[in-house]
Design brief:
Jelly Rolls; 2 domains; three-stranded mixed sheet; 13% helix; mainly beta; 18-stranded mixed sheet; 4 helices
């Protein structure tokens, strides 16, 4: 896990340790408790300082921002966030990958998650954002509260509102944001270490497994890539997952350290 500081310098985060987090002047601005950062509840004076957390494949991380917002970061995710917020400014973070947000309520300072395709604006709520660069769509699933989604500049006309249980999606390269009702548990199970596949193509399952377990798949069975599967795994090792697919669907595979070949 890499932390990039406001001055562009980087440091590696050791998730086995607990320590104080300091700013460039050595002032304590929060603490690390193993695999989570907790920033102190203070407002910045002057300029915002942004840090970026980069989570590798096979790891997850959690950060509590200075406003009390809690963000769970999935594997292969990057989050750019202010170490402290300004009193008279909206709260903004920038996400590539997947995160589950529990946004602290603050009507005076709306909270915006910026992704490459869609922006999500909230006052205080719980929702999941999936916006990996290699995926064909950006998906926002609302668990609690209310959010608005928009592309480019926000106007009265281009906002799509979600209520709990709705998923908003935007396909890469398209302007339209579509909504549908979903079971939110499927989309948030990863926070507790579970993997849930619902009507998922084998291609998309492979991508998730690569991120989750930090492995590489070589799929020589192109027909299989388009097949649709339903499955759930709760904190299982990769061998158990592969055995399930092998037993249930007669999928032939070979494991060579962290490389898995589908025959």
């Amino acid at each position: 896990i890499v932390l990039q500081l406001g001055d562009e310098s980087t440091e590696t985060v050791d998730t086995s340790e607990s320590r104080n987090l300091t700013d460039k002047d050595g002032k304590v601005i929060g603490k690390q408790e193993k695999n989570r950062f907790i920033y102190s509840k203070t407002y910045a004076s002057g300029e915002l300082v942004y840090n970026t957390l980069k989570i590798p494949y096979g790891k997850k991380f959690e950060v509590q921002l200075a406003d009390g917002t809690i963000i769970h970061l999935n594997a292969g995710t990057s989050l750019r966030y202010p170490v402290q917020f300004l009193r008279n400014q909206n709260r903004q973070v920038y996400l590539t990958g997947e995160a589950f947000f529990e946004v602290a309520k603050d009507k005076a300072h709306p909270f915006t998650v910026n992704t490459q395709e869609v922006d999500v604006e909230v006052l205080g709520t719980k929702f999941n954002v999936n916006s990996y660069t290699e995926d064909i769509s950006t998906d926002v699933v609302l668990v609690e509260g209310k959010v608005s989604l928009y592309k480019d500049k926000k106007t009265a006309e281009n906002q799509v509102y979600l209520t709990p249980g709705l998923k908003g999606s935007n396909m890469q390269g398209q302007q339209k944001i579509t909504t549908e009702s979903v079971n939110t548990d499927y989309y948030t199970a990863w926070v507790k270490g579970s993997l849930v596949f619902k009507n998922a193509s084998f291609e998309s399952i492979i991508k998730k497994l690569e991120r989750h377990y930090n492995v590489t798949f070589i799929n020589k069975n192109k027909e299989l890539g388009k097949e649709i599967f339903n499955a759930r795994f709760d904190n299982e090792p990769i061998e158990v997952v592969l055995k399930y697919f092998s037993d249930s669907y007669a999928i032939d595979y070979k494991i060579d350290e962290d490389k898995i070949t589908i025959k």
